[in-house]
Amino acid sequence: MHADWHTFWPKVVDATGETVYMVLVTLALSALLGTGVGLALHTTRKGGLLPSRLVHTVLNALINVIRPVPFIIAIVALSPVTRSVVGTMIGTDAAVFPMVVVATFGVARIVETNLLTVEPGVIEAARSMGAGPLRIVVTVLIPEALGPLVLGFTFVLVALIDFSAVAGTVGGGGVGNLAMTYGYLRFDTSVMAVSVAVLIVLVQIAQLLGNLLARKVLRR
């Protein structure tokens, strides 16, 4: 059975909107949480602003355990928690929860890695002028690493589009669900082709916007 494209395009538009919603909400939440975890990792490391071996070891272990898990497995593993928090395991909101959990730890590692590129001398200079840890983070660490951080978040944004497609195949909504329900299960290659095209366009837009923003930040 093939789709009637005169009536099917609204479904494509709705699915694209759901994907954009999942990606943007996840990006906002994971950026906030992941940046906090990444800053904690950087500041608590040996020689950091607030060194703490225990905190750094625990956070580092969590990231190393969660990051390698394939997203499709993470969705299944987190499903009981998702049901408890969201109330359901189906739909876009249910897909956002595991996406945020997984993306947070990916963002944390990206933030920590980029903060490590800041010259130690700049931090020491701020310390010698009496700046406290919070002031150094806000006025030195983040501004100095902002360009690479924007590129890192662009990478995360593209990865989240992929996550949303995976989530859609297990009832998460969006373009992935459209491709699975109306394309794969109905053997309709036209729906699959359109779904792939939509995802490619979304990725290209995300990459373009990220590159433009990073270029603007780096020129400051």
Automatic annotation (TrEMBL):
<keyword id="KW-0812">Transmembrane</keyword>
<dbReference type="GO" id="GO:0005886">
    <property type="term" value="C:plasma membrane"/>
</dbReference>
<keyword id="KW-0472">Membrane</keyword>
<feature type="transmembrane region" description="Helical">
    <location>
        <begin position="149"/>
        <end position="171"/>
    </location>
</feature>
<comment type="similarity">
    <text>Belongs to the binding-protein-dependent transport system permease family.</text>
</comment>
<dbReference type="InterPro" id="IPR051322">
    <property type="entry name" value="AA_ABC_Transporter_Permease"/>
</dbReference>
<dbReference type="InterPro" id="IPR000515">
    <property type="entry name" value="MetI-like"/>
</dbReference>
<dbReference type="InterPro" id="IPR035906">
    <property type="entry name" value="MetI-like_sf"/>
</dbReference>
<keyword id="KW-1133">Transmembrane helix</keyword>
<feature type="transmembrane region" description="Helical">
    <location>
        <begin position="54"/>
        <end position="79"/>
    </location>
</feature>
<feature type="transmembrane region" description="Helical">
    <location>
        <begin position="191"/>
        <end position="214"/>
    </location>
</feature>
<protein>
    <submittedName>
        <fullName>ABC transporter permease</fullName>
    </submittedName>
</protein>
<dbReference type="GO" id="GO:0048473">
    <property type="term" value="P:D-methionine transmembrane transport"/>
</dbReference>
<feature type="domain" description="ABC transmembrane type-1">
    <location>
        <begin position="16"/>
        <end position="209"/>
    </location>
</feature>
<keyword id="KW-1003">Cell membrane</keyword>
<dbReference type="Pfam" id="PF00528">
    <property type="entry name" value="BPD_transp_1"/>
</dbReference>
<keyword id="KW-0813">Transport</keyword>
<feature type="transmembrane region" description="Helical">
    <location>
        <begin position="20"/>
        <end position="42"/>
    </location>
</feature>
<feature type="transmembrane region" description="Helical">
    <location>
        <begin position="85"/>
        <end position="108"/>
    </location>
</feature>
